Amino acid sequence: MHTSPASSPGAGDAGGMNVVELHQAQALAALGHTVDIVTRRSAPDQPDVTDLGGGVRLLHVTAGPEGDLAKSAIDAHIGAFSAGLAALGPYDLVQSHHWMSGVAAIPVARAWDVAHVQSFHSVAAHPGSPLSEGEPPESGARVAGESLIARESDAIIAVSTAEARTVVERCGADPARVVVIPPGVDLDVFRPAGPGERRPACPWCGSPAGYVLMAARLQPLKGGDLAIRAMAELPASVRPDLVVAGDVSHDFADYRAEVEALIDELGMRNHVHFVGAQSRSDLAALMRHSQALLVPSHSETFGLVALEGAASGVPVLASSTGGLREVVVHEETGYLMQDRDPARWGRCLSELLANEPLRARMGVIARVHARRFAWGDIGVRLGAAYERIAAAHRA
Fold it and tell me: Dihedral angle at the C-alpha atoms of 373, 150, 116, 38, nearest 10 degrees?
């Protein structure tokens, strides 16, 4: 409800969830299912129906103003979205992504007498909790809403065992109704650089030291400040540039100014480049030509970008938290950092950058690891889960 799979990840509130929604739909359609993705209309010129091809359609429902809204302002329009969804069906099964969609869809699924499946993608921390517990709730209704859909959904599809545990412990979900199916990765788009393949044509790509990539929205949860501090620990003579691919989230408009002030404080103005949200193909090109990928998030239920980095044959330096522990294989495909000390991150990154054979070995292992997450295989698992859930609902 709060974002569309047609949006570029890293723009506004769009992220890995957008990628997962679209690829799940395409993988299911490849198995013969017809899939409609329903989202809130965020611009007046968005058509009611867009055929995405292959049995997948994107449907826009008017719920509140037909424009971009901060995530914190969207839950006021859950009722309107629910009414719009009800006018489209019935369907054979409803899967909701994120809490607002679940609150809107559960009564509709009940009216149609079909199964409702929930995917959270992130679970809010209780107010006042540290960021290591998850993102702060953007709405006072979120914590209660997540508990409601955890109890009332026929099943919950979690993206990692870490998320499954959180949904059970924090939201009160029945463990017997939680299924873990990780996201996949497009192995054709995200691939290692070929022999002689040129770097993208961009100002920072010609630096002798290359560049390190961070692909994430600019918000405190993603830890952009730690990435900058870690890069500042490297000697300037051998320091690669830091490329940050992602925009500021609506609810964190002040964070960019904080990051800019930090860059000036550390004397990093010529070493940090903000390139905004990227298309899938452009991000993949940036990724496969980078020296390393940084994922310094305080928490992640999965960490899709780390999997995309692995598929690109790039070592990943990530926080040891949540689902990232299931994506990054420590000392094999990258490193899982146990704390948020910039000096330790800097030392680890410096050692990695100085050891080209190690980076190459990690890249090869990472690509092999990523093949376990091919979307075709994930689609088969998802389709089988749908069949079981729908049959149990009918019984």
Answer: -70
Q: Which two three-digit tokens encode residue 217?
A: 């929205």
Tell me, what CATH number does 360's domain have?
3.40.50.2000
Is the pLDDT at 209 greater than 90, yes or no? Answer: no
Q: Is 286 exposed, middle or buried (0-12, 13-18, 19+ CB in 10 A)?
A: buried
Given a cut of 70, whether residue 375 has pLDDT beyond it is yes
DSSP E strand boundaries for the chain: 35-40, 49-53, 56-61, 93-97, 115-119, 155-158, 178-180, 211-215, 241-245, 272-274, 293-295, 316-319, 334-337
Tell me the C-alpha distance between 327 and 287, whole Å: 16
At 182, list the tokens: 């990780």
pLDDT, the chain, mean: 92
Query: Which of the four pLDDT bands, split at 50, 70 and 90, describes residue 206?
Result: low
Q: Do 178 and 214 reside in the same domain of the chain? A: no
Whether 316 maps to a domain, the answer reads yes
Residue 80 lies in a domain: yes
Q: Could you tell me if residue 151 is inside a domain?
A: yes
Q: 175: exposed, middle or buried (C-beta count within 10 Å: 0-12, 13-18, 19+)?
A: exposed
Structure-model confidence comparison of residues 207 and 191, the more confident one: 191
253 CB neighbour count, 10 Å cutoff: 12
Q: Is 196 inside any structural domain? A: no
- The rounded distance, in Å, linking the Cα atoms of 176 and 167 is 12
Cβ–Cβ < 8 Å for 30, 374: no
Average pLDDT over residues 115-137: 86
Q: Cα-atom radius of gyration of the chain, to the nearest Å?
A: 21
Beta strands in 261-369 (DSSP E): 272-274, 293-295, 316-319, 334-337
What pLDDT sits at residue 10? 47
Q: Can you read off the two tokens belonging to residue 359?
A: 């980076």
Phi, psi of 385, deg, nearest 5: -65, -45
C-alpha distances in angstroms, 196 versus 191, 289, 304, 365?
A: 14, 11, 28, 21
Residue type, 169: E
| 209 lies in the same domain as 139 | no
- Which amino acid is residue 174, in one-letter code? D
**What is d(CA 191, CA 56) in angstroms, rounded to the nearest whole number?**
25
Question: Structurally, how many domains does the chain consist of?
Answer: 2
Determine the structural domain holding residue 329 and report its residue range.
203-373
